[in-house]
Amino acid sequence: MTEENSPPVLHAEGLTKRYGKRVALDHCDLRIPRGRVIGLVGPNGAGKSTLLQLACGLITPTAGTLRVLGARPAADAAHLARVGYVAQDTPVYAGLTVGDHLRMGARLNPSWDPALAARRVDQVGLHRSQRAGRLSGGQRAQLALTIAAAKRPELLILDEPAAALDPLARDGFLHHLMEFVGELGASALLSSHLLGDVARICDHLVVLAAGRVQLAGDVTDLLAQHGWLAVPRGARDRLPAGVEPVRREPAGPDDRCLVRIAPGAGPLPGPVRPVRLEELVLAYLSRAAGAPAGPVTPLGVRR
Questions:
Q1: CA dihedral (212, 218, 222, 225) positive or negative
Q2: Distance CA 260, CA 254 (A)
Q3: DSSP letter (8 states) at residue 222
Q4: Among residues 184, 210, 236, which one ends one of the domains?
Q5: Burial class (CB in 10 A: 0-12, 13-18, 19+), 295
Q6: Helix (H) or strand (E) holding 195
Q7: Are 101 and 205 part of one and the same domain?
Q8: Domain tally for the chain?
Q9: What is the spatial distance between Cα 61 and Cα 51, in angstroms, rounded to a whole number?
Q10: Order of strands, edge to edge, in the sheet holding 254-261?
Q11: Is the pTM here over 0.85, yes or no?
């Protein structure tokens, strides 16, 4: 089955999740094709972890539907085997050794690839006799990633697995993640606060804020659809048809506008400057938060 004819890796319609009176996800629609490395970004409380837990079948929706690889999440043992999951803080069992983790993975996963697991553990310098509780944060992350990937899943789901790692450990983790994706031919869904990481490895972007999907699509397409435009302040509400303002900033007599330009939009009032990924994400997050216009600054640290 070709990628075009395959079910999307994730398909949500009206997806809603409430915890009591708190709404974590609010009627989200999302369709992500296969073969992508997806960056899921948004502020704390946006619903990112909720979406990932729904995708893994750890929790169920309050309303709406969600399909992962064409089926209900965790529909059966066979579907569970198609998804690998690395939760926040890359949890491993402190009292078990690296070798114990590999043996447990082999017992629990029918598609377990012992050669892949052994090769990757050796590659990152983990010894079978080491207890997980004595590993560094980077080593624990590599162990958790190895266990998830040795299932040979079609989809790897990772919930901020590298957020607490130092730059060198994070670089190694991302490098091995991309090696796994290439070797397995898998899709990957990565939640992260670190836009530098997203820009480095992701080719599809989902921006989540206030429980809603604010922006989604292939990164190259989204960057091509947006740009900075200088607009005279008196004309800022008279943009051509098909040109949607996302963020405005005062810039002397003009407004500096980040705009989304639809195909076939009317003539633009001036040249369009390309937008960087972090500018694009922060503009949509600011709009969702109702923040006043101000300089767009890089978003590269955890907040």
A1: negative
A2: 18
A3: H
A4: 210
A5: exposed
A6: helix 195-201
A7: yes
A8: 2
A9: 9
A10: 243-251, 254-261, 226-232, 272-273
A11: yes
User: Scanning the structure block, which residue is given the tokens 């898998």?
Assistant: 186
- Contact (Cβ atoms closer than 8 angstroms) between residue 257 and residue 269: no
The dihedral of CA 104, 106, 112, 114: what is its sign? positive
| Domain limits for position 72 | 10-210
User: CB neighbours of 207 closer than 8 A, spacing ≥ 6?
Assistant: 41, 42, 213, 214, 215, 216, 281, 284, 285
The order of strands in the sheet holding 63-68 is 22-32, 10-19, 63-68
Rg (CA), the chain: 21
Full pLDDT tens readout for the chain, 303 residues: 455 567 899 999 999 999 999 999 999 999 999 999 999 999 988 999 999 999 999 999 999 999 999 999 998 988 999 999 998 777 799 999 999 999 999 999 999 999 999 999 999 999 999 999 999 988 998 999 999 999 999 999 999 887 778 889 888 889 999 999 999 999 999 998 889 899 999 999 999 999 999 999 999 999 999 999 988 776 656 788 899 999 988 777 778 899 999 998 888 888 899 999 999 999 999 999 885 544 443 333 333
Residue 136, CA distances (Å) to 131, 142, 190, 206 in order: 11, 10, 21, 31
The answer on 147 and 269 residing in a single domain is no
DSSP state of 131: B
- Name the 3-class secondary structure at 270: coil
169 shares a domain with 25: yes
What is the identity of the amino acid at 32? I
Amino acid at 227: G
**Closest to 301 measured CA to CA, from 91, 43, 45:** 43
